[in-house]
Amino acid sequence: MIEANKVSLRYADNTLALNEVDVKINPGELVFITGPSGSGKTSLLKLLMGMEYPTAGTLKVLGQPMKKGRSGKISRIRRKIGPVFQEFKLIEGRTALENVYIGMRFLGMSPRKMKEYATTALDRVGLAHKKLSPVEKLSWGEAQRVAIARAVARKPHLILADEPTGNLDHDNAVKILELLKSFRSDQTAVIITTHATHLIEDEKDATFLYVNKGSVSIERRGKE
Ligand SMILES: Nc1ncnc2c1ncn2[C@@H]1O[C@H](COP(=O)(O)OP(=O)(O)OP(=O)(O)O)[C@@H](O)[C@H]1O
């Protein structure tokens, strides 16, 4: 589902954010990306989302080569990806339900189906009772769960979460990780960057990508 061969990313100012990364991720994998601040974790997620392109090497996501000039095909791939980024980009003045709809707007679904999927997603994140609340009236943790509902409502094949445990106390960080992990399925891989290594060190069935100064090493644990 993801195949990176000697992928590098050099930004316009010449910063080498990723250096010859080789990684293969299979459908249904749970992946944690860890590493020091500035090591390249977000850059890796941006490549997977098609927000940046490799400046060397080859990257395929869900069978699609991720390179410049393929924006039509890449936007079709993006529909199969559910991103949860640090700044949630929820739309104020709109309800939780409307914010989840917005994530599905380009999928060509009927309004009835969209409502059904959005309602199910809000239910899964424990916010059915807040679906008609404007998002600015929600707590930070609730807003984060709306962002997760928005990412998962379309039933993506790949969920990408950038530092979802940041800004959360221990109990809520554990809950958010459990919630994200619950969306893993045979078809859906879940990839999470986190600084909270103490919360994931006991994971027995997961893949760990350790990023250090743009290099990535991989450890696979569990059911092979
Ligand atoms: N748009 C950009 N232009 C130039 N350099 C960038 C850009 N974005 C990130 N960088 C640099 O690339 C390197 C990797 O950054 P990245 O954001 O991927 O790290 P990170 O591991 O996600 O860090 P953090 O844990 O602090 O979020 C850093 O040196 C950063 O300063």
Automatic annotation (TrEMBL):
Domain ABC transporter, by residue range, is: 2-224
Q: Name one Pfam family in it.
A: ABC_tran
GO molecular function terms listed in the Swiss-Prot or TrEMBL record: ATP binding; ATP hydrolysis activity; transmembrane transporter activity
Q: Which InterPro entries match?
A: AAA+_ATPase, ABC_transporter-like_ATP-bd, ABC_transpr_LolD-like, P-loop_NTPase
Q: What SUPFAM superfamilies does its record include?
A: P-loop containing nucleoside triphosphate hydrolases (SSF52540)
Q: For this UniProt entry, what's an example GO CC term?
A: plasma membrane
Q: Which UniProt keywords apply?
A: ATP-binding, Nucleotide-binding
SMART domains named among the record's database cross-references: AAA
Q: What is this protein called?
A: ATP-binding cassette domain-containing protein
Organism annotation: Mobilitalea sibirica
